[in-house]
Design a protein that fits this description.
single chain, 88 residues, mainly alpha, 2 helices, transmembrane helix, transmembrane, translocation
Length: 88
Amino acid sequence: MFNIGWQEFLIISVVIVIILGPKELPNALNFVLNISRKIQILAREFLSETENIMTKEDIRKVKQTIKDIKFDDNLIKEFNENEEVKDE
């Protein structure tokens, strides 16, 4: 994900333990995990709503196309003329 090797991870871990201390480390990890969970929930909701909007927009376009075809007399006349040509 971040292209961090084990050596970099070890150095970062040691620095965090030195800065926060062993007593505050569990609280800091809980805070980071809670933030991470909230971000994941928000991302899932965002993707879900985006898919819903896209689906609704697609359905609206299909309905409009059907209405356009249904009420387009010129298109029906052209279709009928083409059918007459094929019949001959």
